Amino acid sequence: MGRTAPTYRQALEERMKRWDAFARLLTTPEERAAFETVRTGARRYAAQATYVGSPDLLESILLSVLTDLAVRVRAEASARAAPR
Fold it and tell me: What are the domain boundaries of the chain?
């Protein structure tokens, strides 16, 4: 029997494809790099989002992105605060 519902990873990648039009409209390299950071963050916590099994895909994506960005901000702040 085949699956009747896509996996989280499949649903995430489908959503990412829909975001391609937005990505093409970004004009600077900095904007494109920032957007790729967001996409990476969404993918980084796919296992956790799959395990939780929330019916709201966007909620899982946002939690993943925000967690990834928070980790990056803390790491950058720690690196700046470290004595040289």
Answer: 8-81
